[in-house]
Amino acid sequence: METPMKKRREFIKTVGVLGAASTLPSTTPAGVAAEGETVASSAKLAIDGGSPVRKTGLRHHPYGPQFFDDVEKQELLDVLESKSPFRWQAEDSKVLQFEKAYAAHVGMKHALGVTSGTTALYTAMAALEIGPGDEVILPAWTWYADYDAIVLAGALPVFAEIDESFNIDPADIESKITKRTKAIIVVHLQGTPADMSPILEIAEKHNLRILEDCAQCLGGRFKGKYVGTMGNIAINSFQLSKSITAGEGGAVLTNDSTLFERAIRFHDAGSLRDVYADSMGGGLLVAFAACNFRMSEFTGAVLKGQLQKLEKICGGLRRNARKVREGIADLPGIKLRKTADQAGDLGVTVFLDHGTEARRDYFLRALRAEGIAAAGPGGSVILPVVERIAKKTTVHPLWPSFNSTEGKAIRYGSECCPRTIDILGRHGGVIMDPNFSEDDINDIVRAIRKVYMAMGAA
């Protein structure tokens, strides 16, 4: 059996004498470490003139490009050598290969490649037949595209609060449902899956559709299922900041063949190409007014290669985030960002709830001074307080979203999301990287412990 002294020695060996002495609950007199090593009883923060944990700064980098290699290179060369960058000209389309591989990877029947996560949302709205007179519930904290897709469909966005996971709060959804509600957009934000169980129950109870936005959580899971596989339809983004990337790109996922056909037609000028028609028994629908969101062969080629690295990227994130959580778990009073499924969480962030925005901001400044990049929640916007949204500005003054009785009556602004504003204001910490080294992880742990203990529990 390991003794407390042995565990203490191992920790000191890992994070260094100074880090251990300034953070661990004392089991020896102040200034005296294990086995007679003399150290300071506390470390002066770098923000106050002390020595930083790191002399060179540490920060995360976009994940996908770190894993580019000959796999993506060869896929791109195949396209160049074929001289067929248009997916419907290519004999063996890279986009179609990616679509099939992506659907198989997450266990879905259908996947459709498009030009971006935003156009994937527009396509999903069209597939769900969202339009004027409909209401769609979405979280107050998410990216513009979720709101814009609703408005550009002519429907009315209705905001719900988030909870401490930064995702939509299931407890705030039901009060937003009316007879006009048609769908809920569930966004899995900054690597953390939303709590799908109660949301699915609410949707079933009220006969609502669920659109999962997985742009910030590709590879995340909830109770063993990939995000994007539990609702009626889902979208993903492959922009630079996402789990895998081709710089831009998006996808639509569904098990519903009718929704899939509508998505296909909407993204391709109303048409249903033979390769899809053959697999769907010829198709069920007629053409309708649509767009051109077709993915290029170059994008499909890179994504086909990147998909092969997805689990490696996700595994690195989870591993590193777990090590940091374990390294700070014994800090008194510590409260981490909530997650509905720790095992399925991507581990994009290790964020602490600091109790107040002032404490959060000081913690972040102090952590940066120690050489560790630190941030509050990001990648999204508190949408109701954005001026154009608060003022309900649209592309045309007669746009249907806000010209109905309900559209004219609805009010946005800070008064519709006070809890969201509070939660986001008090959380902050470190954004993880799948390629952080053991030394990097140890430095993150040392820095968090050093600053947290200096500040005292919230």
TrEMBL record:
Keywords: Aminotransferase, Pyridoxal phosphate, Transferase. PROSITE patterns: TAT (PS51318). CDD domains: AHBA_syn. It is an enzyme of class 2 (transferase). It comes from Novipirellula artificiosorum. This is L-glutamine:2-deoxy-scyllo-inosose aminotransferase. GO terms for molecular function: pyridoxal phosphate binding; transaminase activity. Its EC number is 2.6.1.100. GO terms for biological process: polysaccharide biosynthetic process. It holds the Pfam family DegT_DnrJ_EryC1. Belongs to the DegT/DnrJ/EryC1 family.
